[in-house]
Amino acid sequence: MLETRELRYFVAVAEELHFSRAAERLGIAQPPLSRAIQQLERRLDVALLERNRRGVTLTGAGQVLLDEARAILDATAAAARRTRRAAAGTNRLTLATKAGANHKLLRKLLDTHAAEPDAAEIEVLLCGMGEQARMLRDGRADVALMQRPFDALAGFDTEELLTEQQVAILPAGHPLAARTSLTMADISNVPDLPVARWPRQDGSYEPGPGPEIHDQSQLAQLIALGRTMAVLCASSRSWLWNAHAAAPLTDAPHVTTVLAWPPHSRSRAVAALVRTATQLQQEPTKTRNAQP
């Protein structure tokens, strides 16, 4: 049997790849941390880490345990959080959404749901790019607005809300901003205006010349300064500055915003919000599909 304590220890070492930093992060001394990892390896009868003078690396088995341990720790945290919320007896839900998401869609979902009898109070939790999945898994959020194909939706139930085209967000004074439409080829190789790079699910970035983007405010400022461009949903037009311009991308894949929740959820409040989302999805297509 694995203990959550030793899994926390192992995850810290696996993420830091350094015993001293992991011990500092955990608030313990290094010797007991090293002994705990060695004991874990003996009980599993596998090598989880390779240690040498240059540092620590994960073995193949170690990578498997890291993935599994994260899921276990998330599930444990979620169980504790949801149990406490259930004991509190409040009719309340937490909805996670990335900052800068379609606020008109969210406003409509919240308003429509609030009009329902005995509707739960919805707390909106703004987060960074790609953080919604982790928040659902560790119980910080009950539901989330996510986007296909960009967000990791595996393991969640979903209800589609909106499908829309993508646009290129450019500095208003750039020559491409005068175009009525663009293609992905048009923006793929513009030396003076590289495309911004968003974090992947693991927090790393694809290699490339564009700046690494951490939040919407940073992106808006860099575009206004003429340092980058971005490819975003058509609804992003709602937060553009006068220093920005938007041009439809005719060959970019469409993006679908979905309401996502854990499939094992038995919350009546979640079920009620999903019913509201289903009602919105069943509205005429022209009111659901955003046009550029």
UniProtKB/TrEMBL annotation:
Keywords of this entry: DNA-binding, Transcription, Transcription regulation
Coiled-coil residues: none
Residue ranges annotated for the HTH lysR-type domain, each copy included: 2-59
GO terms for cellular component: protein-DNA complex
Single GO MF annotation: DNA binding
Pfam families: HTH_1, LysR_substrate
Xref: InterPro entries: LysR_HTH_N, LysR_subst-bd, WH-like_DNA-bd_sf, WH_DNA-bd_sf
Top-rank taxon: Bacteria
UniProt cross-references to PROSITE patterns, sorted A to Z: HTH_LYSR
Sequence similarity: Belongs to the LysR transcriptional regulatory family.
Protein name: DNA-binding transcriptional regulator, LysR family
Organism: Micromonospora phaseoli
